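User: Hey, my collaborator sent me this sequence without any context and asked if I could get a structure. I don't really work with proteins. Can you help?
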Amino acid sequence: MDYTEARAYLAEAAKSGSVLGLEAMRALLSELGDPQDKLKFIHIAGTNGKGSVLAYVSTILKEAGYRVGRYISPTLFSYRERIQVNEIYITKEALTEHTFRVREAVGRMKAAGNPLPTVFEIETAIAFLYFVQEDCDIVVLETGMGGDTDATNAVQTTVLEILTSISMDHMQFLGNSLAEIAAHKAGIIKPDTVVVSAAQEPEAMRVIEEIAAGQRAQLRIADAGRAEEVAYGLFAQRFSCGGYKNLEIRLAGTYQIANAVVAVEAVRALQELGFRITEEQLRQGLAKTVWRGRFTVICDEPLFIVDGAHNRGAAEQLRESIKTYLAGRRIIAVCGVLKDKEYEAVLQITAPYIDRMITIETPDNPRALPAEELARTAQKYIPHVEAAESLAQAVDRSFSAADREGDVILAFGSLSYLGEMIKETEKWRWTRKK
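Assistant: No problem. I've predicted the 3D structure and written it out in structure-token form, which is a compact way to encode the shape of the chain:
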């Protein structure tokens, strides 16, 4: 098997869709010798902010000298981005090697007539094999969806669980109330562990408290409302919390203060668990954290920002960021979403701040909503809407429309297209410089 064959195998496995539950995942890991039991994990679940908190915590741990595995989804720039050690992507050779091992194990499961794993379960098993091979001290593990029945929840050796902001998303799988969704997310909590949770809506908080108590887990609340001396900025932000003064992050977005507060509380918990992390390492880790695709400036003339706001909670956070950083500026938006998301709610929340919108169909995604259909919905709320035939056309039209001083281009919606959007923007700018 070579790298091309490995990717082809994974692409074929993706056609089977997703199935919630841990039976096949546990059987696959057993076939592989249970590599996950040789690792220690920080397990993160939530609706919004998982990736940012993962980036903060893993960067701080790396700064403290630990060898840190990262497992993330979705990815923006490369398939191999989902599996990293100390922020370096898994190599093609290692991905090929471990895909071959997993394929052989799946073959044995098929021969025995057992349920077969989904592509996400296969990818998770590949990650565990790689993290063992790379002798990781700790793995920061992001759930795919939910928590209790997510493939990542096959792990038992967690030292810390983190729950980020919980809101309405994936209702067809997780339930139609915050309580139901929170119950799934909090399903990652293991007995006698430490849990750090962002401050939640009361309905969700009650469920988290009950589950933590039932698992005899110590629950710590990271309330962003307690952050002090907050200074917002597109290129640097500062705040004080948890006894630390004047902490700096380079990630924009009002919600990044809340995510950083969760990360700081997680680090305090890790320190109490015996991890050696100094204040200077915490500060440096926060300041060095990079997490593109979340209110990220990718161009400054005109100002071009990308943000993965694809559900109601994320749209509300985006609205606050627009009010904080872009007040009074004309916004030309580019938007692409998946058809199983609450995209009309996202449009309703953000529309009052948008002068013009260009809709796109997220490329190479069977769940993508056609650009024309999204445009018809957007026209209910935004005066000037047009559908683009491609990302390249959307980029060209957005730059042409941003013809006044102070205009802002804002691309948001599904994270799945933002990596390509960034590449197309860089290509457009490079072509114009020639």
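In plain terms: The first strand starts at residue 41 and ends at 45. You can pass these tokens on to your collaborator as they are.
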